[in-house]
Structures are given as structure tokens and as C-alpha cells.
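User: Here's a chain of 344 residues. Predict its fold as C-alpha cells.
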Amino acid sequence: ATMNDYNIFFHLENVGMAYTLFINNEAVAEVEDPYTPADFLLSPYLKQGVNELMIGVRQSRTPELQENIFQPETEQFENSYLFAQRRLAVRDFDIVLEPDTTRQYGKLRLDVVVANDFNFKESIQVGFDIYNPKGKLMEYSVNEIEIDGHAMDTLHFNPDIYHAYEFKWGDGQPPLYDVMIYLKRNGMLWEYIPLKIGFGKTEYRDGSFYRFDKVLHVQKTPFNALDDRKQTYVEIEQLKLRGYNTLCPDYPQPKWFYDMCDEAGMFVIDRANINSPTDSNIRSVGGTPANDPALEEEYLTRVKSMYYRSRNHSCIIAFCLGGNPSGNGYNMYKAYEWLKSVEH
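Assistant: Prediction complete.
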């Protein structure tokens, strides 16, 4: 009863196999992708008193989408946890700090999605602070909004951040700004989310990557997070010394990997958990899985999971739909179409 004003979520990773999530003997989620961490809202399925949560592990029904992909050995369910969030809270956000159109200062583009899961209209203050890498407060703002019951609203912040060119991020340069998103209710701090963001903009045009309007010479190498975080950082620093500036993982990585690349100034081309080399050249229906209409939703699910997990990290310069070689076809096209629709 003490949790009635909260939503309860379950963060699940390192399951090792496909799985079914049961709450009080009710199947509430079927997951075929064993490698991408996932978050589940539990509250609609909970009851007063004791609740039972069970994970039924099984073989994936789509093993053809993850051929020859092997994660480092970890303890099953490592880094999985339950967490609670108020029912009037930040549901999502998009953040980027990029050059303005005149290329003289920085422009923070921050969209904060606030959700009200109570039954009635509620008022909340939504704000942010941003500090430069030397700790100086550069900008802040607070706005009050009313949100109807069981509704969401989005606030858009677009302040100018001056002297940003003194702290350019990328290609081995890791200065990061500190950003705090917060909610206040009746003047009291209600929720806060600390973030780090680098100043820069990566564009792809005419067959080349551009960084700050200059050609970025991408020196990429395959790389996946090791089971040891410290050793992973050492390996990343060694790759930088050998002239590499871009990492290409084989599947979605743990969150700390992207945080680490942000701190190291290392670019990342993220990849969905799709690797289907068998029959990749057979474009007919029933040949490559990429052209099997029955798998369209699974392709979209995996690409969306990749995108929403890593899109706010400064290190991300591109997204890869699948491993090489993976077949092309209708499912890949629909995934590409969706990705282009959200990443303008």
C-alpha cells in the first residue's frame, strides 16, 4: 500500500536466453532477444500483499537472427534490478548539444516528456541546469505545466550555450557538460536525473562523416565490452593509441559501455542484435529472414531497443541495422524507414 503513488519497474539483463516474464502466474511479456536489456512496467499486474515474479527461460523462437553472437560470460541476471518512480515523473527525454547555425556557440536541444499516471490533472515544475566541463553554470530554466490524468506532455528547451567551442567533444577529446533534469512539486524537489553530454555534431553526407563541418576520418574496429569494466577501459585507451577512433560492437552493449565511450571521447556505431548470415543472399520469401514478413515485428523491436537505449549518448555517430553479412529485404527496409523517421 505504501507504493500506491509509485510505478514499479523491472530492469532485466544478462538473462542468457529468450524468456517469458510472469507476474502472479500471468504471462506479461515474451522476449526473443536475449542480449538487449529491457525495462518492464509491473504496476498494472501487481496486487496488495505478496506478489510473485517469475522468469521462464527458453530457446529463442528466432535463433536465425543472432547467429554466431556470444556475450562474455556473466552471472545470470547480473545488473538486473527493481526500481520505483513516482506516478508523476519524467517518462523520456532527448538531449543534444550541437553548434548553432552560425557556428559561433552551442545550442542545447532538450525535450523532456512528463507522464501523469494519476487519475486527475496535476501541476508540476520541470527544469534543468547545465554546467560546462569546468563546473560553471551556463544556463537553467524552470517551467510549470498542468497535465491531465493518464496523459503526457513534452517540454522543449533550446537555450544558447556560449563559449562551447572551448570544449569540443570527440575524436579523443572527452570534455563533458553536466546536465540535471528535475521536477518540483509545490516547491519541493520531486525527481532529478543527472546526465553528461558532449558538445558536437556528426553528420553524414556525400559519402563522408563530418564533425564540426570538417571531414571525420573514421578509423573503426570491431569491439565489444569485456566482462571486466576496468580492462574494457584499458583496451579502449589502447585502441586510441593505435589510431582507432570508432568502435563497432556486434550487438547492443551494457549502459556502462556507452558511458565509458562518452568519457573516453571514442565514437561508436551501435548495432542491433541482428546477425543472420545463413541464406543472406536469397532474397525470396522464405530465404533470408530479412525478407520473411512474419519477422517484421521482431526486426523492428530489436532496432527500436538499440535506438532508445543509446541515442542520448555523445559517442553515438551512427546506427547499424545488423551484422555483416545479414540479408537485405522488406524487414530491413521497414527498420531503416522507422529509424530515419525518428532520427532527423
